Amino acid sequence: MLARLRTPALVLGVFLLAALPPLAFAVDEPFYIDLFRRFMIFAIAAVSLNLILGYGGMVSFGHAAYLGIGGYAVGILAYYGIDNGYLQWAIAIGASALVALAIGAVSIRTSGIYFIMITLAFTQMLYFLGISIEEYGGDDGMSLATRSQFGDWLDLNDGTTFYYLVLAILVLCMYIVHRIVNSRFGMVIRAAKSNEVRTRAIGFSPYPYKLTAFVIAGAMCGVAGALLVNQAAYLTPDYMHWTRSGEIMFMVILGGIGTTAGPLVGTIALLLLEDLLSGWTTRWQLYLGIFLVLVVLFAKRGLVGLFPGGKRDG
Amino acid sequence: MAESGMADVLLDVRGLVKTFGILRATDYVDLDVRTGETHAIIGPNGAGKTTLIGQLAGNIIPDAGEIRFDGEDISRLDASARARKGLARSFQITSIYREFTALDNVALAVQAHAGHSFRFWQPARGEAALRDPARAILNDLGLGERADVLAANLAHGEQRQLEIAMVLATRPRLLLLDEPVAGMGADESQRMVKFLGTLKGRQTIILVEHDMDAVFSLADRISVLVYGRIIATGAPEEIRENPEVRRAYLGEESEA
Question: Which residues of B touch A200 (CB under 8 A)?
Fold first, then answer.
């Protein structure tokens, strides 16, 4: 099974990411550490979405909700002076899991376009809730009082330390998803995606399995939210904006849905391209859109599908 | 249920009704299936055979009537709950996991009956408890060589066999087969009939089939469904001789 995880794209990607900080310092551009740390945080969100979208067939158009829940959990606790990172992140994960449980319990009873719209609607509700709470900055958001505190051994104010923490969490999340999708549990959600009628006919009730996957994905994305608010040192309802949900979905589709490496490759490709294009022209979104359409039309299995050996787990 | 001889009735259907708009697809159907028998349901196109199977399996909700399985009323249970009780079906249009290998398909069916699947860490493809029984069933069906082929890449007849393998892997007490040899070549069809013959006696089967050779060689009893009603039930010879059946169904075919 590990052999499949070691697709060329993945090994190369992780190696390059690990080598980036010393290289950035060597060329005196530490800015790249900050940039790629941000990329990797979104990659964690994409990895979590891939679990339900790529393997479970649940096209959630509201995955940014958990970025917001994770971010707000950390931000609000910090606002009240609770800066213990372990506690903050545990609450971020728990709150995200609970919200995912509530949203999933309703939306997983639907399918197709209804599922897409319901997940979108719930996330919009949370977005407007974030806007309406003036205490935490409302529309404008608020600065994070202090970054999460983990003691002397792990200082998030040190950019490189923070970078390697994010990289470690990213690799861990990818490994967890890889294990889950190949386990008995994972086979059930993939079976339900492949042929729901057959899955019921052999005796599975897909609902509790799909809901569990939805909660795991939400909790994992909550971690990304906790990281993101520490990254930006700023809390804003924009984390939950629907365009953000769409962006995470594009990261997964661009990289290749239902693959181990896809979400990472897709995230870096999308955000890098956004960065390059926006520095080059103000109409960057147009060019990005054209590129995405081309990928969807001509590389149906995403960028990972173009790599030799980078095939789907299947 | 106190009558003598009812003990060996595995499936007991009373007064089943299903209407689609103005079409009464199932019209007060009574049916009993005895433990161990192969009970064929035949009838002309549009007689409501697939609708009946759908109601027995739990895919279609009847408007009225009762379905008792081993004495228990299962009319309100959904398809997955009925499958767990031991009713397993094949579909007229092959229903398999196309993007999984043949072995994965059958292993999933084994897994469905191996307790809950909330196991998140060990690779399912490495579990002998799932793979070994699945491989044995594929061998029984003559698909052993094709275990690692993606289901989508199997020939049509092989896909039908694979579906039967999956259904059997759930260790059903009652097998509902909806046209198992439909669309198969003569050789494949013969092999499938031969295989189903090996199940006779140890496996209770409801067989919906158009192929009369298959029906008459396999069935212990036959029920004839015409316009949603069962017009006759009996041993193959009785059905062959029944004038009403000949008129409604068999006659048309032999003349054609």
Answer: 78-80, 83
